[in-house]
Amino acid sequence: MMGLLVFAVVGTLAWWITGRLAREASFLRSLDHPNERSLHSAPTPRSGGIALLVSILIGLGLAAIGYALVPQSKGFLPKGFASASLWIVGSIALVTVVSFLDDRGGLPVWVRFGAQAAAAAIVVWGVGLRVSSVPIPGVGPVALGWFAAPVSVLFLVWMTNLYNFMDGMDGFAGGMTAIGFGFLAFFGWRSGHPFMLLITSLVAASAAGFLIHNFPPARIFMGDVGSIPLGFTAGALMLLGVRDRLFDIWVPLLIFSPFILDATVTVVRRAWRGARIWEGHREHYYQRLVLSGWSHRRSVLVEYGLMLWCGGLAIVYRGATDRWRMVILFVWMAVFAGLALAVHRRESRADLGSR
Asked: Which residues participate in Mg(2+) binding (predicted)?
């Protein structure tokens, strides 16, 4: 009961702070001015991520007070939690500060990537969060050996940036956060992992509060100060879940696949053409859907349905036999291939109609 109250407080705080940032000018507020790469048409505040982070921190504080006051909570958190959490929080703080400065005035690419790589290295080597092997249904686990640490660092940096790449449509990143972290919370609850349950529930609750103001038509965006730390946190919790055997790496990949596949395929396509992959563009599948004539609201609602389907697929995958896992991954890949083809056909029809 106390936990539900904390989550309700966090969601309400995120809603209230986001509303204030959307309405009132302050040194924390910066505007996202539309350009040729944007989907929005009017200057919009992009400091909503501050509301997310502040409400999560307050939720952590309330949880810490409850932990200290309730005798039955002793032993609730695992041994070594304090030192590990400091490393993780410190890493998130690093990318948050750099992202805030980037929102305010723009920072060189090497500064942003350098800070993200340093934060990822702290989590991988300082805390020991890494993927040591990748299970292949029907084949078995493929050990990464000494590649495990650098691959995990690259994975964290990629998760951090793809979250930022995908924060380009009203309600999209906020919805993925509420739904994706909500499914991670389910696995934390199901596996009896209090830390995973606590953090993911707080993030999901804050995202739900933020989403009230971010749902199409959005009054505020989360900005880099929100998307970058959220992407980093998602990646770190994926590695934590794998290390503590809540699931194998395919489970969180399935949950966040609407983000991961769109961003990865788009970046690979752009890199193949020789485009600058770190620059803004309008080539992601969700952007192409809007540009082909779908409204933000219709597009994001379809994406929410896809997110829920992927989360449900992850739950089924977690309890399936090896043979059924092969079937699940095949169906998953086939559905996304079909969706990509559908977007392409939609664009072709829109082009023909405009001639």
From this structure: 164, 224
pLDDT band, very low/low/confident/very high, at 351 (cuts 50, 70, 90): low
Which tokens sit at 328? Answer: 């699940």
Cβ-count burial of 82 within 10 angstroms (0-12 exposed, 13-18 middle, 19+ buried)? exposed
Q: In terms of C-beta density within 10 A (0-12 exposed, 13-18 middle, 19 or more buried), how is residue 305 classed?
A: exposed
Local structure of 244: helix, strand or coil = coil
What are 253's two structure tokens? 């990949």
Task: State the burial class of residue 341 (Cβ atoms within 10 Å of its Cβ: 0-12, 13-18, 19+).
Answer: exposed
d(CA 163, CA 256): 10
Q: How do residues 71-108 score in pLDDT, each as one tens digit?
A: 555 555 555 555 667 788 889 999 999 988 887 777 88
The reply to whether 224 sits in an annotated binding site is: yes
Q: How many structural domains comprise the chain?
A: 1
Per the CB < 8 A criterion, the answer to whether 163 and 139 are in contact is no
State yes or no: pLDDT of 24 exceeds 70: no
Determine whether the annotation assigns residue 164 to a binding site.
yes
Residue-number span of the structural domain to which 254 is assigned: 2-354
